[in-house]
Structure formats: C-alpha cells, structure tokens
Amino acid sequence: MFLHIICLLSLAVAPPLDAATSTKPGCQSRCGNLQVPYPFGIGIGSNCSMDSNFDIYCDTSSNPSRPYLANTPFEVVKIAETEIYVKDSSQQQAVACYDIKFNNLTEYSQLEIDYFQNSPYTLSDVNQITVFGCDDLAIGLRLSNDSNMSGTYGAGSSCAPYCENRVGTGSCPGIGCCQTSVSKGKKFLSIRLINMNSNWQRLRLFSCSFVFLGLMDSIGFTFRLSDLEDSTTFLNNYAALTRIPLVLDWRIGSQNCSKMQKSGGYACKENSYCVDFDDGVQGYHCRCKEGYEGTPYLSPGCRDINECKNFPCDSNGICTNTPGSYKCSCPNGYYGDGRKDGTGCFQVPGSHSKLAIGASLGAGMGFLLLLLTCFWLLKFLKQRKNKKQKEEFFKKNGGLLLQQQISTHEDILKKTRLFTAKDLDMATDCFNESRILGQGGQGTVYKGMLSDGKIVAVKKSKLVDEDQVEQFINEVVILSQINHRNVVKLLGCCLETEVPLLVYEFVSNGTLFNLIHDDNAEFPFSWNMRLKIAVEVAGALGYLHYATSLPIYHRDIKSSNILLDEKYVAKVSDFGTSRSIAVDQSHLTTLVKGTFGYLDPEYFQSSQFTEKSDVYSFGVVLVELLTGKRPISSDKTEPEKSLATRFLLCMEGNNLETILEAQVLEQGKREELTIVAKLAQRCLNLNGKNRPTMKEVVMELEGVKMSQMLSTPPQTIFQGVELLNAKSIMLSDDDYTWTSTIDITIASSDTSPFINFI
C-alpha cells in the first residue's frame, strides 16, 4: 500500500548526485549519514557555515549521529542545490478525535510551522497537505504579511475529504482522503481541523481525522476506513506517513543578483554565476559555469572539469582539455574535426607507411609476449602457492608424525593409499551436502565413488587442533594394523587439505544400535541373527586383544560403533580413542573417555583401562541384544536408569524372563539364553578380575552357536542373510598374519562415518 511513499522517502534520504560536497578547511564534513556542503556547516557558532542560519547541529548521542537544522526541531535528511529536506512528525501532523455519541473532542492537535522567520528558508510548493477522514475540514491559515509575522490570519488552502458510509476501503486521493498544495515562498503555515458534522447534516462516521504535511504527491494508495476509529491504530498502521520529508527552499541573502553584485556581500566565487531565487521572493543562488564543478561559495570557486577523461572525441582523434571546455583534433595522416558528433578523423590515403605498419606489428608482438609472460608467471605463482599451502596442511594435519611412524615401523601403511584432494573432491562432488551420511561432534561423513567405481565413506573433521591431529594419526595407524573381516577397513587418507580426511570401506546397512532400537524397522531381528552378530563382534575384539603383536584396546565399544554391511555382517568401527600397549603392561592410565551406559565403573573410578574394560562394554552390547533396551533408560518411571544395573538385579533375583525381549524369549532356547545371559552377567562384574577375557567370551558364544548348528540343517538362511555352519571361528594366533609395534593415543570420536542413512 505504501510502496510509493517508501520509495519517495528513500529518494529523499539518498545523497544528491549533483550536490557540492566541499566544506570549509578544518570543518567536519559529515554528520551520521548526511554529507553537509558549504554554505551549510556543522556546529553552532563554529564559523563553518556562511552564517548562523546555515548551522547544522549534530546530535552525537544517537548512533548514527543525527543532524538538525539549528534552532528548530527539524532533522535534516538531505541537502540539495536549492532545497533542504527535513522531518519532524510532531510538527508535520495534526489529529482531531471526537466522542461520536456526544460530539465532543477527545483528542486535538493542530499543525503549525513558524520556525523560519528571519531565515533564508521558505516552504516549497512541492509540499502537499494530505487529509485523512470523513467528517472534518482542514484549513491552512497563513499571515497576510509573512515578512514580519505581525499581519492578520487569512484563509489559505483548504481540503475536506468525504465518505458515503462506514464500510469499505479509502483511497488517496479519493474516498476518505484529499490533498492540496502549499503556496511557494511562505514562512508560516497553520492547519486546523474543523468538525463538519452540521454541514454534512449527519452524524459523524468515524472518530478521527488526520493531516500530514510534506513531500507526498498524489501517488494513489488505499487504506482501511475502519482505521479512522482510533488515532493510535491509524498512526501505527500507516507509520510511513509520519516520516514524509518537509521540503524547504533556501537562498543566499535578501536581495537579488543585480543588487548583491554591487554590494560587498556577493557570495559567488570564481568560475560561477548568480541565479535569482524567485520573482516574488528575494535572494539568489550560485552555480558553477558550464565545464566547471565544485562549490561555488568557497574560494577558489569551481574547478575546471577535465572532459578528456571520458574521451569525448573520435577514437582516432586527440583530446585537449581547455578551461571550461575541450578541443578535438586529428593526428598527422588524418583529416576532420576529431569530434564524435562531427566529421571525426579519417586517414589520408597513402599516409600509412611501412614504418608505421612495422611499428604496429612490433608493438602488437611485444604486447602479446608481455601477456604470455604475465600468464605463465601468474600460473607459476599460483602453483607455488598451492604447493606451499598443501605442505602447510600436511604438517598441520600430522604428516610429520605419520612420517615418523612410517620410518620407525616399515610395515605401517604399506597397503594404505594416500589420496589427493582432487581425488576426494571428484569422489564426493566437492563434498556436496546431498552426499552426507552422518554427522557427529568430531566431523562429517560423506558417501563417495572413486574413479574405479568403488563406493567409499570419506570422514572429514570439523575442526583442527593438536588433539584432533593426534586422533587422526592414531586412527590411521591403528586401522592400518588391523586386517579382520569384522573390523571396518581403512582404504587410505588425505593430508593435503585444510582438515584431515580418512577414506573407509562403505558399510551400507546402518548401525547395530539402529537395528536393535528402531521400532519401525521392517527387518525381523531374530535371536539367531543377534547371536551371530555377538559372535562376530566378540571375535573382532578378541583379535584386537590377542592376535596383534601389541594388544589394542578399543575403549569405546557400543552398539552405535558396530556397523552392518549388506549381508548384516558386523564390523567394529571408530578407533579414535583406541590404544595399543606393550606386552608387559596390564593396563594404561588415561583420562576417562567413553560413553555413559557402556563405561566400565572400575575404569571410571581408577582411570586405569584394561582389556577387561572392553569386556564390560561388550557385556552391555550383549545385554542390548538380549533385551532390546537402550543402555540408559529415558523412562522416568524406571527406578534404575542403567540397563546393566537392571539386568544384574534381574539375574540376582532369577527374573531373567522379565527383562528379555519378547522375540528373543520366543525364539531362543532356554538353555542358550541362560548361557548367554550368565556370560553377560560375568562381563558386567564390577570387579574386572572376575570378568572373562574376550577369548573366553568368544569360546562360550561359539559353543552356543555350535550347539545351534548341530541341531539345524547344514545351511540356514534368515531373511536373505546366509549363515554358514561349516566351521567355528575360534581365535588363535595362527588365524591372523598382521603384526603391530606402535603405541598411539587419541581422543574419542562420536561419528560413525560408514553408515548409509539414506
């Protein structure tokens, strides 16, 4: 509705393109967003303006600072060549509200402009009086003698809007709104609202009427007539009306040009001329002569414009700047006036000699050679910069630490590929958000496809600091040692990017946590499947503890760190907190790191992590498989939040069936469930010495699995998952060929970067 008004306001506030921007030397040139040109000046009595009438007061208490016309309440929003735009909503509006029932005034204010006596300012005729209402007449009163403010009031402009009824929409100008112009050259104006109830010969339709004064042409907009019922509602809904600028004409002196040129107070400086303000109002302006620009009121006056900067002559011509103008000519061998709007310059036949041709060719070849040299130099510098940046990233991302590990232990990383940044950009479509598989506190994982078509998961860290660099290198080194079908495989890494990157095999079927706890899962999670996964995870941990040359403790075993491939084969992931220790060590002392619900209480109290700490965490996963419950309960009615505690209480009270999942209880044989439950109970023993080793855990679970095989056909298929019963995978040191001799520590990562969430 008020788009046109807002556009007018923005034009009024915008700095004028042709306004002089010079000020007196040593004077402030700007107040807030307003550029203040001479003859105006910032500061009252500061001698920065031509006289006190042109002083601008700069209020620095607001941000940005706000400029005011001295000795008036009007804020200055723009200074033009002959006009100044000001605003003060309290001085530029009037309101009249009535009690319709009793026809009594309840609110009244009149609009009165009387600040410009004995000043160079008068009201411009571009201002308009705009009246909103249906029942009142607005009369603009003016003095019969404005010059001394001592004359009598006389009728000036008047305007009376009219409405037929109380419903519908008003328009301006039109229903409920009228406009009238303001006479040019007036210093005083008083506008009053008069109740026309008796003249209309009807009761008032609405309570209120409003008057606004300022630069608002008949721009055409609509408003709700019902808003005229209340002044607060109207002024809030149409607040743009209160910000309309008031336009004042300004001038120099009180006499016209001919008289001022004879007196000693003539203000126009060098290269300028005088223009009378108006036939009926004395005063004048100064303007720069054609071909000059600047401030005509300050010495040395207007400056010559160098028109040749924009080359107004013919493309073959020669431009020569002259005071206030320019000259065009033609070079030797050409004829014409050299002007674009004239005959231009034409070559004289036969004047282009072989020497000129040779010079042109030589200049062209030289320029081409220069361009080629610059091109190759820029390319060389860019390549050098990229190489240096990659070297810095390599160092920052732990490349030197990785090189040290490689030089110390030759077997490390010999099967691990070092990817380039370009390889991984292509694989992940420049790490497109649509490729994101998962996000965690330590980083983001993207799905990618290598140039050979292999699908991979790329783990990209969020932040880089010294601790995270150590985590990154630790995960590379530990995963490079491991060669087991139930441990996620590291394919390679990239160190030349801003953040370190790891490339893993892609594991497509989510996490064990999701499979256990997703109530909407379509895949039936049978007891046989749970037992198979438990055997696979236990086998992987047994491998880490006993089959490597140096035992590796995972330190963050949980169901969300166990991934499932397309055949639901379990793969242990996230080795960000893993540690390898010397053979003669029984434990390592570290800051406590892990996940609540899975954390070994003994480790939590002593800060000493042993192989039995991993056993405890596996015990919690085993209980999850048996019960289908989360490790930490969110049920407020549950007396024990810890799943491990609730399970142990059930075992002590011989109430195992009360906590087992219904599907497990239905499908599993009681003997099998009892054996696995008692094994979980032993794993969760608060005294780590009384817990079984992972090798013992594997043997017991394999025993249960073997008993199933002996009582079922040689090959059983569960929902597309093939379980082969040909032989047990009992652990022995002969089953694995990889060895390790390193000792690296890193902090925990809560990202499982190999899961397909799509």
Question: Which keywords apply here?
Answer:
6 domains; 27% helix; alpha+beta; 758 residues; Laminin; disordered C terminus; 5-stranded antiparallel beta sheet; single chain
Give a verbal description of the structure:
It is a single chain. The protein is α+β, with helices and mostly antiparallel strands and about 750 residues long. It has 6 domains: about 20-80, no CATH class; about 90-250, no CATH class; about 250-305, Laminin, CATH 2.10.25; about 310-340, no CATH class; about 400-505, Phosphorylase Kinase, domain 1 (2-Layer Sandwich); about 510-735, Transferase(Phosphotransferase) domain 1 (Transferase(Phosphotransferase), domain 1, Orthogonal Bundle), CATH 1.10.510. It contains 16 helices and 42 strands. Helix 10 runs antiparallel to helix 12. The longest helix has about 45 residues, at about 355-395. The two termini are about 45 Å apart.
Summarize the structure.
The protein has 758 residues and is α+β, with helices and mostly antiparallel strands. The longest helix is centred in the middle third of the chain and has 43 residues, at 354-396.
Can you lay out the helices and strands and say which pair or pack?
Blueprint: H1 3-13, E1 30-31, E2 34-35, E3 41-42, E4 55-59, E5 66-69, E6 75-79, E7 83-87, E8 93-99, E9 104-109, E10 111-113, E11 121-123, E12 128-132, E13 136-143, E14 153-159, E15 169-172, E16 177-181, E17 189-195, H2 197-200, E18 208-214, E19 221-224, H3 231-237, E20 246-250, H4 257-262, E21 272-276, E22 284-288, E23 292-293, E24 303-304, E25 318-322, E26 325-329, E27 334-335, E28 346-347, H5 354-396, H6 399-408, E29 417-418, H7 421-427, E30 436-439, E31 443-449, E32 455-461, H8 466-481, E33 490-494, E34 501-505, H9 512-517, H10 527-547, E35 552-553, E36 562-564, E37 570-572, E38 579-580, E39 588-589, H11 601-606, E40 608-609, H12 611-627, H13 643-652, H14 662-667, H15 670-683, H16 694-710, E41 715-718, E42 721-724
Parallel strand pairs: 3-4, 29-33
Antiparallel strand pairs: 1-2, 4-5, 6-7, 7-20, 8-9, 8-18, 10-17, 11-20, 12-16, 12-18, 13-14, 13-17, 15-19, 21-22, 23-24, 25-26, 27-28, 30-31, 31-32, 32-34, 33-34, 35-38, 36-37, 39-40, 41-42
